[in-house]
Amino acid sequence: MSVLTPTAGPQAVYRINPVAKFTTSFVLSAVLVLSIDWVSATVALGLEFVLFFWAGLSLRTFFRRTLPIWIAAPLGAFTILLYGRPSGESHFQFLLINVSDGSIELAIATFLRMLAIGLPAVVLFVTIDPTDLADGLAQVWKLPARFVLGGLAGLRLIGLFLDDWRSLELARRARGVADTGRLRRFASQAFALFVLSIRRGTKLATAMEARGFGGDTTRTWARESRLRWPDAVLIGLGLLVAATAAAISIATGHWNFIAAQ
Amino acid sequence: MSDLDLRIEPGERVLLLGASGAGKSTLVHALAGVLGGEDEGESTGELLVNGRPAERARGQVGLVLQDPDSQVILARVGDDVAFGCENLGVPRDEIWRRVAHALEAVGLDLPLSHPTSALSGGQKQRLALAGVLAMRPGLLLLDEPTANLDPDGVTEVRDAVARVLDSTGSTFIVIEHRVEVWKDLVNRVIVLAADGGVLADGHPDEVLVATGEALAAAGVWVPGFSPVLPQRSRQRGEPLLHTEQLSIARVADTVLRTGIELEIRAGQALAITGPNGSGKSTLGLTLAGLLPPVAGRVVADGLRQGIGPEPIRWKSRELLTRIGTVFQDPEHQFITGTVRDELAVGPRALKLSDAEIALRIDPLVERLRLGHLLGANPFTLSGGEKRRLSVATVLATRPPLLVLDEPTFGQDSRTWGELVALLAELLDEGSAIAAITHDAEIVEALADSEIRVAPWQTSPGSVEVVR
Q1: Cβ separation of B86 and A167 shorter than 8 Å?
Q2: How far is Cα B458 from Cα B228, in angstroms, rounded to an integer?
Q3: Could you tell me if B172 and B16 are in contact, meaning their C-beta atoms sit under 8 angstroms apart?
Q4: What is the H or E stretch that residue B211 is in?
């Protein structure tokens, strides 16, 4: 489970600063949400697929991790197909449903766009190690260390909560109360987990304080996190993909600025 | 804790004793400066570390706590050890020198990127010790550092501390209710009185001779004052439950053991022993009808009373009068807001009348000293009280077979003695017990048979029948 064990691998993508991955993903989505046309999305997606080869995920991992997007994108597109703004020739009509030339084009554009934004985001995020992310957020983006490290340490408790939950479930069966009242039992079990988690959290906070966390001294960082040239290359590639997609779309006259509609 | 006057010189090694509730933990937390501010309690008087108020001496004092799981802070071994140094503002190259040195001192020979979630309890405690050492504290505080560990883990941690003290010469204070673990390592024993102040203070041998009996009565494990073991009238009753080629797993796809064949008879105690993580608890929960077997069967012909033979198919309510389970962590099995309600949960599920419920609960309350706690919330009890309550709740429905997961773990000697006496009585009355335990003494005192679950790495497959 990636929450508990460090995420690492030999590929270049694992050595890129998480902050750079965030930035790249942000640049791509920021440009691609500006217009809904199939040209910009197709260009972006095409260029991204070339880049995925270097991402270091096996084909299997790639499809397993991005599966939600492959499911969500057609569903989103289908909705647009049925209910999207109609224009041009109408092919099928039933109550509010109206499949027209316009809605078909919109649906294709939506499908491609969701892939073009979603796939790179997942690929970039699944290769982020939480510890490296915390280092990046605190050192590159200068977010407060107290907040960042507290969150990071808390993340580790999730595995313990899963074990607690299983034990709570078995214990209720052993106490003779697991035959009926499923909903009420769930609530009481959730409350018990809440109590246990506060207790674990308090203990963790004490342990952190005992190691000088939250004192007045200015903190140093054992692991340096800064943006190096591979990070700049990644952000540059993101910009390049976004710019190319927008430029080709504008040049071919397909770009339709969302705010203009 | 009140009216305490104490002076500890640099380099002294102190074992801090006292009955539970005497304020040992409070004192140690105060010394480490992690007791919290004025809004969290009251304090009078003065506590100086190296001439400075304790809360400003952070970094000069290192504290290792009891629970191994709650002390791991980061995901990688090296980062975790470095954490304290970072907080003290130590420069980067110096941090990694200290990390390497600290890991060597506690004998953790692992790569810096090793995941902390893959460590054993003993390793986690040594990791916590390394994290503290890297901060180079003048005073090392340990608050029951071995209470949650199996015997190998206890030795591991004790030896690591001994090595560290010999090389650093730090001042050392440890709280522990098992005197034997630290006796040879310390040169001073301080006994806190239950009503404030110091009861005894001096060389270990003298203090233990002078106050040993009083300490033992208060629940401290003092060598030479072990609880009296009960006499058993060992008898071999009817078979209650047996297994056929049983395979067990906690989560369906990781099988821990296969081909287990065992039998439990009325009036007999079966001890299930072996190191942490070997699958002992999983075996216990499977026998108790809480986890489904992966392969093979658990057959409880002697317990079925007119229903099917396999406990996992029984309803939750049907388990109550057949197999009772006491969990390792009592907090997992508490489901109400008061001790009184908690005791009544089982009998109520059996639809007994209030009069009958009282008839069952009252003797248990008396026997397990819970009378003054009936209105208290189970979660607020002390460790010993929680354990006594969790045993009482199970006995209230009178199951002929008890499955106990580490019933005596971390208990003081008084609770230990009471539990063992009670279990011996139940056995003599014809109940059967399956106890998962590290505790060699309880095996000695009660077990009629023992099966050992070896470390999974050295022998997957089945379990070994010792006797």
Answers
A1: no
A2: 37
A3: no
A4: helix B204-217
Distance CA B366, CA B355 (A): 17
The enclosing H or E element of A22 equals helix A18-32
**Model pLDDT, residue A64:** 87
Partner residue facing A196 (CB), from B34, B331, B349: B331
Q: Which residues of B touch A215 (CB under 8 A)?
A: 58-59, 87-88
Q: Average of pLDDT values for B245-263?
A: 86
Superfamily (CATH H level) for B239-465: P-loop containing nucleotide triphosphate hydrolases (3.40.50.300)
Q: What integer pLDDT is reported at residue A215 of this predicted model?
A: 80
**How far is it, in rounded angstroms, from Cα B129 to Cα B142?**
9
Chain A neighbors of B76, CB-CB under 8 A: 6, 131
Chain B interface includes A87 (CB < 8 A):
no
B394: its two tokens: 């199970």
Instruction: Output the pLDDT for position A4.
Output: 55
CB contact (8 A) between residue B65 and residue A209: no
Query: Across chain A, what does the average pLDDT equal?
Result: 88
Q: What's the CA gap between B435 and B433, in Å, rounded? A: 6
| Tokens standing for residue B255 | 């099988």
CA nearest to B107, candidates B92, B86, B129: B129
CA dihedral B237, B241, B246, B249 (to 10 degrees): -120
Residue in B73, B78, B132 nearest the CB of A153 = B73
CA distances from A95 to A78, A80, A82 (A): 16, 15, 10
Cβ separation B334–A218 shorter than 8 A: no
Q: B87 vs A173: CB contact, 8 Å cut-off?
A: no
- Closest-CA residue of B relative to A8 is B113
Mean pLDDT (chain B) is 89
Question: Is the distance from CB of B158 to CB of B146 less than 8 angstroms?
Answer: yes
Taking a C-beta distance cutoff of 8 angstroms, is the pair A121, A134 a contact?
no
Cα-trace Rg, chain B: 24
* A130-139 vs A145-155: helix crossing angle, rounded to 10: 170
Q: Which residues of chain A have pLDDT under 50?
A: 1-2
User: Quick one: pLDDT at residue B139?
Assistant: 92
Pairing of strands B61-64, B464-465: unpaired
> pLDDT value at position B182?
92
Start-to-end Cα distance in chain B: 48
Q: Hey, are the CB atoms on A8 and B87 less than 8 Å from each other?
A: no
User: Which residues 156-185 of chain A have a CB within 8 Å of chain B?
Assistant: 156, 159-160, 164, 166-168, 170-179
Taking the C-alpha atoms of residue B222 and residue B177, their distance in angstroms, rounded to an integer, is 8
User: Per the structure block, which two tokens stand in for B386?
Assistant: 């929680």
- Based on its alpha-carbon atoms, the radius of gyration of chain A, rounded to whole angstroms, reads 24
Distance CA B220, CA B180 (A): 10
Q: Is the dihedral of CA A133, A137, A140, A145 positive or negative?
A: negative
Q: What is the pLDDT of residues B101-142, one digit of tens each?
A: 999 989 899 999 999 988 888 899 999 999 999 999 999 999
CATH superfamily of B13-217: P-loop containing nucleotide triphosphate hydrolases (3.40.50.300)
